[in-house]
From TrEMBL:
Gene3D superfamilies linked: Vaccinia Virus protein VP39 (3.40.50.150)
UniProt protein name: Methyltransferase type 11 domain-containing protein
Lineage of origin: Eukaryota, Fungi, Dikarya, Ascomycota, Pezizomycotina
Species of provenance: Zasmidium cellare (Wine cellar mold)
Domain Methyltransferase type residues, every copy: 45-124
Amino acid sequence: MSFVDKDQYNNVATEYLTLADVPQTKLEDELVKLGLGDCTGFKVLDLGGGSGGHARHALEAGAASVDVVDVSEQMLQVGKDIEAKTGYDVVMVIWAFDHARTMQALEGMWQNVSYYLKPGGRFVGVRVSNPRGKGAQSGDYGARFENVEEIADGVKYDCVVLTKPPFSFEATSMETSYTGSFEIPQKFGLSDFEYVQAEDTEIVKKDPAYWKTFLEDPHFRAFTAKKM
């Protein structure tokens, strides 16, 4: 089952660490922190957690432990990568949905979210919401999407991160995901979906004029849910 080419992330691993200086990464961090809220004593699972930046946010919010599974095919078989345990209080998926190359892969991700999340547990996610939006195309917020191309059930594109020097990687977004549908996660028992509002972050409050384009047509959204 194809998910994502892990080698492309190995190839840009050093550059990826410079993302912290990108404006949209700073916004993303604040959105995730708001979505996490108080995690005192929680067990947290970060699927596709990369270098662990958001895992550190969870620890800062009081989490007792955080398990991180990096972006790879193994995310679809996460039980092989982490200790066999269920009942996480929080499961995070930050951007990884936008590397599912098929609907089958996307459903596999959501199935894992549901499996590892305890009843009543909280989900926190970030996913692309408009790959062709003005903010995504302009690069005004530190990254842009190029070569957007239709594929079965979605689009693929190059995400160019405007660090110094810039780097890029290929991403894929299924239409059901970037159009804001929650049909798949609902099928796996998630409910109470809510968007984390960019207007509530300090970075936007400090310079709303700069973020005007994003606020009018956000090219990514953070959201939360609960397992029924």
